[in-house]
């Protein structure tokens, strides 16, 4: 499967990929995640303080963000796996962090919109199926990242080389990265199990506590993924590999478009408000 990949001659640098780690792409994920968590918090607080009524506009707006997050997370991971014979660990890891950010924010929206999904069994099972696909892809990404750390893969080699290189002892300072990667994979599985249970649970006794505690945990997870992306990316921080040029910092049309698309849900919100 990986015969076409050259894994014997690492280069001194690798090409930038603004489509993966460009400033506009990263900001669109971060802004969407921030807005989703803020809206989820508003809806949950609204329901805690008021026993009747619904935050209709916020719910419709959050629902569009929720769909966008889960589908985008699946999409970027699929593209990353399709390009694994040419994509270096730096870009592969950023995609994984963005998918974790999408997962955390989608589950935050699930906490606020669970009753919307429970009303229709088709929507509920469709959401559960998408969550399962996202979990499988995220675990596959985690295994690739774990192998790259354990084998100390050169940052300029394609990520697919982790299955060709012989096993050897990782660097002494890699223990924290290995433990963190395993913890993230295990956390994804636990979060998926909780999400499925939450979708089907009929109990209301501890619902508000689950919502508040879950929102705090998911906010911390999203914040951690965001900080990791900002520190690691060329657009905002210091990359872990030598990159040719500064293409990921430049604001081209491809970087402006994801930012402009963030206006679409706001336009929908205005249309809902106006009737």
Total beta-strand segments? 2
Portion of residues in beta strands equals under 5%
The amount of helix comes to 55-70%
Shape: globular
User: Kindly, what is the distance between the CA atoms of the first and last residues, rounded to a whole number of angstroms?
Assistant: 55 Å
The main β sheet shows up as:
2 strands, parallel
List the helices and strands and how they pair.
Blueprint: E1 14-15, H1 18-21, H2 23-49, H3 56-82, H4 89-118, H5 121-150, H6 175-200, H7 207-232, E2 243-244, H8 253-261, H9 263-273
Parallel strand pairs: 1-2
Helix pairs in contact: 2-3, 2-4, 2-7, 2-8, 3-4, 3-5, 3-9, 4-5, 4-6, 4-7, 5-6
InterPro entries: Elsinochrome_Biosynth-Asso (IPR053018)
Keywords: Membrane, Transmembrane, Transmembrane helix
Transmembrane segments: 20-49, 93-117, 129-150, 174-197, 209-231, 251-273
Written description of the protein model:
69% of the residues lie in helices and 1% in strands. With 275 residues, it is mostly helical. It has one domain. A two-stranded parallel ribbon has the order 1-2. Residues 1-5 have low confidence and may be disordered.
Brief overview:
This protein has 275 residues and is mainly α. The chain contains 9 helices and 2 strands, in the order βαααααααβαα. It has one domain.
């Amino acid at each position: 499967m990986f015969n076409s990949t050259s894994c014997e001659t690492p280069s001194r640098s690798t090409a930038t990929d603004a489509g993966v780690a460009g400033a506009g792409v990263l900001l669109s994920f971060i802004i969407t995640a921030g807005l989703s968590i803020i809206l989820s918090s508003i809806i949950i607080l609204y329901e805690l303080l008021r026993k009747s009524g619904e935050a209709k506009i916020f719910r419709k707006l959050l629902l569009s963000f929720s769909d966008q997050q889960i589908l985008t997370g699946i999409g970027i991971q699929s593209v990353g796996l399709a390009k694994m014979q040419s994509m270096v660990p730096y870009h592969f890891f950023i995609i994984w962090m963005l998918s974790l950010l999408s997962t955390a924010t989608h589950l935050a929206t699930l906490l606020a919109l669970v009753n919307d999904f429970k009303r229709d069994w088709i929507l509920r099972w469709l959401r559960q199926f998408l969550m399962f696909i996202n979990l499988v892809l995220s675990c596959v990404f985690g295994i690739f990242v774990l192998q790259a750390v354990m084998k100390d893969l050169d940052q300029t080699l394609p990520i697919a080389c982790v299955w060709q290189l012989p096993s050897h002892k990782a660097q002494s300072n890699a223990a924290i990265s290995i433990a963190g990667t395993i913890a993230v994979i295990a956390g994804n599985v636990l979060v998926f199990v909780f999400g499925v249970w939450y979708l089907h649970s009929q109990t209301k006794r501890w619902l508000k506590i689950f919502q508040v505690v879950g929102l705090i945990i998911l906010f911390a997870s999203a914040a951690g993924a965001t900080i990791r992306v900002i520190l690691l990316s060329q657009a905002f921080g210091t990359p872990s590999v030598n990159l040719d040029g500064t293409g990921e910092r430049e604001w081209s049309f491809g970087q402006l478009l994801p930012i402009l698309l963030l206006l679409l849900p706001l336009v929908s919100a205005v249309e809902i408000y106006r009737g």
